[in-house]
Design goal:
By secondary structure, this protein is α+β, with helices and mostly antiparallel strands. The protein has two helices and four strands; from the N terminus they run E-E-H-E-E-H. The chain has a single domain, classed as Alpha-Beta Plaits. It has helices spanning 28-42, 73-97; strands at residues 2-8, 12-24, 49-53, 62-70. Helix 1 crosses helix 2.
Length: 101
């Protein structure tokens, strides 16, 4: 399941939140680095970003969302399903190689 959030500050930013199984706080930095590397190899877009967070947008004991930032709404609408599939793939790969869990 994912949710779109549009932020219309000086520059429009579109966040799409993807729910994931909870990740312990001690694993968040490692997963974040893995996702950054994973998406950098596949989608080299300067206006896109990926973060591990929670429904409150703050640090807590566990994180349960991956927030993907798109540069515009059209790109989000066109790519959000693909990104969801890539996130699933990345999480499965990370779970096989991490020693954190």
């Amino acid at each position: 399941m994912c949710q779109i959030q549009v932020i219309a500050a000086p520059i429009v930013t579109v966040h799409v939140d993807y729910e994931i199984p909870s990740v312990p706080s001690q694993c968040v930095a490692e997963l974040s680095r893995y996702l950054q590397d994973f998406f950098f190899k596949i989608r080299r877009r300067a206006d896109e970003d990926v973060r591990v967070t929670n429904i409150y947008g703050s640090v807590s004991s566990e994180q349960n969302l991956i927030r993907y930032q798109f540069g515009d709404l059209q790109e989000a609408e066109l790519s959000m399903d693909e990104i969801g599939e890539l996130i699933d793939s990345a999480l499965k790969q990370w779970a096989q190689i991490t020693t954190c869990l």
